[in-house]
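Table S2 (continued). Query chain:
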Amino acid sequence: MLDLGFVRDHLPLVEEKLRQRGMVPATILKDFHAIDLERRAAITKSETLKAQRNQATEEIAKLKKDKQDATALINETKQLREKISEAEKHAEESDAKLRNILTGIPNLPHDSVPLGKSEADNVEVRRWGTPPQFDFTPKPHWELGEQLGVLDLERAAKLTGARFAVYWDMGAKLERALMNFMLDLHTREHGYTEVLPPFLVNAESMYGTGQLPKFEADLFKVPHGDKNLYLIPTAEVPVTNLYRDETLDGTRLPISLAAYTPCFRSEAGSYGKDVRGIIRQHQFQKVELVKFTKPEQSWEEHEKLTRNAEAVLQKLGLHYRTVALCTADLGFSAAKTYDIEVWLPGQGLFREISSCSNFTDYQARRANIRYRPEGGRKTELVHTLNGSGLAIGRTWVAIVENYQQADGSVLIPEVLWPYIGSDRITAKKF
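Corresponding output:
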């Protein structure tokens, strides 16, 4: 969430940044300026009335001390109390309206974000490796998975419904191997601390990272007593909220955390997209990287986090490219995002496998996450960052499609041999 004072003092800038996102400022900001004026007027009126009441109270005390009639002033203070209450109520109502508007304003794109009107304007910043060459026509993962007997979408649909998957034998082992490999890489080589958070969170947590109230339709809601809990759409939510309403010691920053979790998304509005295979699922697994930094550290840490995610693909020998999202393609809470896209030869395209974002203080303001600078008394908001390190299911897809062989088997990248106990996936039936 943006700071109220910042929006008030930089309204033209906020409007321009919204236009860069492809939004209509009036639709987002509504009557912000008029409500803000009403709020400040109500606060001024309340303070003025309180001063009058205090003065009247002093005069009443003097009159009583001198044994004079204070009835008129006593009646006046009663009226002042009623007017003060009315002004404070008006201020509270205006404050609620402003907060509602502020929660609907996305983060402002950083100046380094490319201007654009759609994802077609995203800018490639680098690529690594080369696509594999085949002397046969490569197959997509859904065909390979079925033929090898490691991916079962039909039985998953029987168990639950569309957009769920059952992994058999080496398919399940590959998923588990990737989880352990990613966690080991990030904790042992990149300095992250592993954390295993709950997979259900409360509404306050969803609000803190920006999923609520705007994206409630994308969430799975679970009634629990007199409240609702939510299945997490990403580990970003519980991990970022670990420090909600806390003040961190500035000497601890940056804090880098890595978490494996399943993720649950209703994919509202995306039906009909990516219906083949496991690219877009209601449940999938992911290793998430989350950082808490000082403001002056966050852009350097954003670059490090992105490189950490890229390292997974490099060690797996998978061709990829990294693109900077343009202003129109940024997520709601992000100030800047790099998407890492892996090459999928069975489909003949690059597919996003990680989004690495700097949220600046946008989430920290919503979640009230602060730090105390060294030697300083005044606390400041941290900057939060996160990125997939990586989406496990899509990495599974990339391995199956890139390492497929003419005989229908799939080679396993060497770095995964200790985790999976084999160098190849061959066909079995279950």
